[in-house]
Write the structure tokens for this entry.
Amino acid sequence: MPRKKSDSENETLVGIVTPVQWDEEHQVTAVALSATDDQEYFIENGDQFIDLIQKCIEANGKIRRDKKPSRSITIRRFSVIENF
């Protein structure tokens, strides 16, 4: 489960990388992390994670929670969880 921290600290989430945006050729252009806290976090630096779609990862980074119900994460460190 993710730990609650102040906005300036990194947090760790566990979840599955999922596609959320496609181009005209049906190629994935953006991904999100569907986390174990039942929330979806748009991955700001998602181009680095397109090859990990449908993989479970533990991601550490800065989370931004907007006033509306959108959340995003800029992942700084991650590891793939093989047996989730």
